[in-house]
Amino acid sequence: MAPRIGVVMFPGSNCELDAVEAITDLGGQAELLWHGDADLHQVDAVVLPGGFAHGDYLRPGAIARFSPVMEGVRALAADGGPVVGICNGFQVLTEAGMLPGALQKNRGLKFLCATARLRVETTDSSLTAEAKVGDVLQIPINHFEGSYTCDAATLHELQAEERVVVRYVDNPNGSVDDIAGVCNEGRNVVGLMPHPERACHPLLGSTDGAALLRSVLVSAGAATPAGVRR
Amino acid sequence: MLFSVLVETRLRPGIADPQGATIERSLPALGFDGITNVRVGKAIRFVVDAADEDTARAHADEVTRRFLINPVIEDADITVAVAETV
Description:
heterodimer; A: Rossmann fold; globular; B: alpha+beta
């Protein structure tokens, strides 16, 4: 049985179909979940995709965290199920208090749309289980509010517990400690600003994102093919 | 009773404010000198129906803390006043 991965669609999400496509190519069964439905329909894992949930009004993620679906997402995470927030999804997870810290406007106020190099810092997370420590992955970024920030105590905790999952090789946005992605204490909830779903096919210029999304499939509890299907 | 509430949000001290920094950098080019410490925040206004001012303030405090600010990066000043009747 292919693992069933729910991809949440908020009003204003715009990367949900990219995520569905990439997950399907990797042998997963992707299902769109509407934000207004608290029922996750027994999916094994959840991806919160990129975009502008609820228009990013007030702050990115500030309103999305009150969407009914987040009750289900919290319950899945509490059960140890993989929950991955990509870009706007990362912002939602920090606003929801499911991941520490916050995402601030980029240093230099520049909207960034580029390919970033990410270094895998730990394989002990639902996003990196199938990668290797030290791997440098080419993954696109596409954000204005992606500068990760947190207080000194939180940063110390993240470092001591090796919860910085991926770091930028060339910090593009001013994130503290070059942080591109972090996980929770249980290591099943992960957020990152870069878009692995946009780097899963040779036509997109990089297939490095496949290792990350395959990790989600594997973490979701099912064997999956070791490579892009087509 | 109706009370008007003004919530002024701002980034906490030590949190980088690229908007404020950009505005500050542009000021000399426009001929404005001697302006420093530019910080950009938001002003959010609403009206609360409550029995008295303390209750209105408590409501405003809670909605601010739980929703209007992200306490990781933001603070707020809250001003409550009896709403002027039209």
